[in-house]
Specification:
mainly alpha
Length: about 80
């Protein structure tokens, strides 16, 4: 799990560096990005609530997208503090 967290964080940092975010602001920008991913993931649930007769493949893709965005958002938004 730690490898997964570090890999996601590393990919997000690389993306932000390519976008031109200064090194000193990357940590705060990662937290903001994680928060937006958490909020954005809720938008994938809305079609499931509105449309009753959606194809099964569509439902599965929306649920997987929701779970993926939520997990990545939580990883980026909330940092674990290491007990010293």
């Amino acid at each position: 799990m730690q490898h997964f967290k570090s890999r996601i964080r590393q990919l997000a940092e690389q993306y932000l560096q390519r976008a031109g975010v200064p090194q000193m602001q990357i940590t705060t920008q990662l937290k903001k990005t994680g928060g937006w991913l958490i909020l954005g993931s809720s938008l994938l649930i809305v079609p499931l609530l509105i449309f009753e007769h959606m194809p099964l493949a569509g439902k599965i893709l929306l649920q997987l997208g929701y779970a993926g965005m939520m997990c990545v958002g939580v990883i980026l938004a909330f940092e674990e503090e290491n007990p010293s």
